[in-house]
Design a protein that fits this description.
By secondary structure, the chain is of the alpha+beta class. About 35% of the residues lie in helices and about 20% in strands. The strands form two sheets. It has an eight-stranded mixed β-sheet with strand order 1-2-3-8-7-6-9-10. α1 crosses α6 (about 210-235) and α3 (about 150-165) crosses α4. The protein is globular and about 55 Å long. The chain starts with 6 loop residues before the first strand and ends in a 5-residue tail after the last helix.
């Protein structure tokens, strides 16, 4: 990938280099051979710098196979964190070999149907068998600026571009949900990008299409790691437990502490429109 003003090379703790590409208020995490993944939100008032825990037995993101056969496989795309009150929305794009036997990933399904233990157990095998995968993010600031749907589709665009940089642009995308990536989202997230590949939205695809299931697991696992790390920088909110979702404990913390830089200010439960009612329901001082 060519150098550009929005790109930086970060040194992983083991000394190897990995690339984190910034796009406005968001960034793309490209697969890299590193035992820890350092993620940086570019605006100091909007996020945090973290280094992922070092207990991962395998690299969090693996190098890609640079080319694929002419009979190219489909790319599965999914997101995690769309309904949260805080933190980024994370998207993953993943490509498996055309003839891959998904029986090699027993128990693979929608990440929401899996326990954390099972998701983490599946991740190394998913990474090992994939031809390519990448993760794209959109921060709370971008979510507040363009709304959660548009931010989600931008994050998906960034994940697909991560696959493109090592494997070439996938010929077709299968996206969980009822929306595909519009040209406007694609161009906004990726100025100068080639034309969109063919794509199809699949309602419930994270439980029906194995590649989408795998993407949902990678996105969920990375997002959980980010919010767990955020708990140390923003104590009192319980991010390590609820991962930014609107649980009773999270709403209590919001009522007492107010929002932090990771909160999505345009969400009703964050900006105060539901705070007074929520405080009463939770027996909190109004």
């Amino acid at each position: 990938m060519a150098e550009n003003e929005n790109s930086t090379l970060a040194t992983a703790p083991d000394g190897r280099r990995q690339r984190t590409n910034f796009a406005g208020d968001s960034f793309i995490v490209y697969p890299a051979s590193a035992t820890r993944l350092g993620c940086f939100f570019p605006h100091a008032d909007q996020g945090f710098s973290i280094t992922m825990p070092g207990q991962l037995s395998q690299p969090l993101l693996l190098p890609f196979t640079p080319t694929i056969d002419a009979d190219a496989p489909i790319c599965g795309v999914d997101e995690a964190g769309r309904g949260c009150l805080a933190g980024p929305v994370v998207a993953a794009a993943i490509v498996f070999p055309v003839d891959f036997d998904f029986a090699l990933l027993p128990g693979l399904t929608d990440s929401k149907k899996l326990t954390e233990k099972k998701r983490l157990a599946l991740e190394p095998a998913i990474r090992a068998h994939a031809l390519a995968f990448a993760l794209g993010l959109a921060t709370a600031r971008e979510i507040d600026t363009v709304n959660i749907l548009n931010a989600t589709l931008r994050a998906m665009s960034r994940a697909v571009r991560g696959v493109r940089h090592r494997l070439g642009l996938p010929p077709a995308l299968l996206i969980d949900g009822n929306k595909t990536i519009a040209e406007s989202h694609w161009r906004a997230a990726l100025p100068g990008a080639p034309a969109l590949p063919r794509q199809k939205a699949v309602v419930g695809g994270d439980a029906l299409i194995p590649a989408i299931s795998a993407a949902s697991i990678l996105a969920k696992n990375l997002r959980d790691r980010l919010l767990t790390a955020a708990a140390a920088q923003f104590p009192g909110y319980g991010f390590a437990e609820h991962k930014g979702y609107g649980t009773a404990d999270h709403l209590r913390a919001l009522a007492v502490l107010g929002p932090c830089p990771l909160h999505r200010r345009t969400f009703a439960k964050v900006d105060g429109r539901e705070q007074h009612r929520g405080a009463q329901a939770l027996s909190l001082p109004s």
